[in-house]
Design goal:
Elements: H1 2-12, H2 18-34, H3 37-56, E1 60-62, E2 68-70, H4 86-91, H5 104-122, H6 125-131, H7 136-169, H8 177-205, H9 209-222, H10 224-227, H11 236-263
Helix pairs in contact: 2-7, 3-5, 3-7, 5-7, 5-8, 5-9, 7-8, 7-11, 8-9, 8-11
Length: about 270
C-alpha cells in the first residue's frame, strides 16, 4: 500500500515531456495572438503599405528648397513583392522612404513579439508561465513560431493589398507565376531567422519595450538587403536555401535567447 502511494506521488510530480510542454505553450500563445487587436491592425497595415506603394509610384514632390523628386515608377504590380526600393536603400541608407516595402513586415512581426514579451514581464505573467512546467526553451520556440505565423499572415495581406491596388491603378499583372510563388515562400522562410533575432532583442530588454522597439527597427533596417535575396526569379533552390538559413539561424539565435532567459531573473 505504501509502495503504491509513493508510486502515485512520483507520477504526479513527473515533469511533462517536451512535446506536451511546447503544445501547451503554443496553445496559450496562439489564443493570445488571435485575441490581440494589434495582430489585425498589423495585417491591415501590411495591406495598406502595398496599396500606398503602388498608388504613389511615379509621383513627383517638391522639397522646401525647390528640388523636384520623383518616386520609383512601377509598371507591374508584382514589383513591390520583389522588395522595390531595396537597392535604393542599399545605395542610400538615409533614404528612409525606401524602407516602405514588403521587408517592413519582418519588423512588424518583431514588434508584435516585442509587445508580447514586454507584457509578460511587466504584468508578471512570465512567472506563471514558468511555474507550470514550461521551460525557457519552450517559451523561445513558441514566441518564434508566433512571429513566423503572424509574419506570414502579413505577407499574405500585403499581397492582397497589392492585388487590390494594382487593379485600381491599372498596373500589369504579368509574371512568372512559379517565380512569384517561390519568392513568397522564400520570404516566409526567412521569417524564422528574423523573428528569432527580434525575439532575442525582446527577451534581452524584457519589459523595456521602448528599447526593444528601437533596436528592432535598427537591426531590421540593417538586414533589409538580406531579405531581398527572394526575387521574382526565385526557384526551388532559393526556397531550400532560405529554409535552411531560416531554420539554422532561428535555432542558433534561439539558443542565445534561452541563455539570456536562464541567466537573468524573471523581473
Amino acid at each position: 500500500m505504501a509502495a503504491q502511494t509513493i508510486h502515485a506521488e512520483q507520477e504526479i510530480f513527473v515533469s511533462p515531456s517536451f512535446g506536451s510542454r511546447l503544445k501547451s505553450m503554443l496553445k496559450l500563445d496562439f489564443y493570445r495572438l488571435f485575441h490581440t487587436p494589434l495582430l489585425y491592425i498589423m495585417l491591415l497595415a501590411a495591406a495598406l503599405i502595398a496599396a500606398l506603394i503602388l498608388s504613389m509610384s511615379g509621383m513627383e514632390t517638391v522639397s522646401p528648397n525647390g528640388v523636384v523628386q520623383k518616386s520609383i515608377e512601377l509598371t507591374n504590380t508584382w514589383q513591390i513583392v520583389e522588395s522595390t526600393g531595396g537597392s535604393a536603400v542599399a545605395d542610400n541608407p538615409l533614404d528612409f522612404a525606401g524602407f516602405a516595402n514588403i521587408n517592413m513586415i519582418y519588423i512588424f512581426a518583431g514588434l508584435l513579439m516585442a509587445i508580447f514579451v514586454a507584457h509578460d514581464y511587466s504584468s508578471g505573467f512570465v512567472k506563471n508561465i514558468f511555474a507550470v512546467h514550461s521551460k525557457k526553451i519552450d517559451y523561445v520556440i513558441s514566441k518564434t513560431v508566433i512571429g513566423v505565423v503572424s509574419g506570414t499572415g502579413m505577407i499574405l495581406t500585403y499581397v492582397l493589398g497589392a492585388v487590390f491596388a494594382g487593379m485600381l491603378t491599372g498596373k500589369s499583372f504579368d509574371v512568372n507565376m512559379s517565380g512569384l510563388v517561390m519568392c513568397l515562400i522564400s520570404k516566409a522562410c526567412l521569417m524564422g531567422i528574423f523573428c528569432a533575432l527580434f525575439l532575442g532583442i525582446a527577451v534581452f530588454f524584457r519589459n523595456k519595450l521602448w528599447m526593444t522597439i528601437i533596436f528592432t527597427f535598427l537591426f531590421g533596417m540593417m538586414l533589409y538587403p538580406a531579405a531581398s535575396v527572394a526575387t521574382l526569379s526565385s526557384t526551388v533552390v532559393t526556397v531550400l536555401l532560405t529554409l535552411v538559413a531560416g531554420l539554422v539561424g532561428a535555432a542558433a539565435i534561439g539558443m542565445v535567447s534561452s541563455f539570456f532567459l536562464n541567466k537573468r531573473d524573471l523581473v
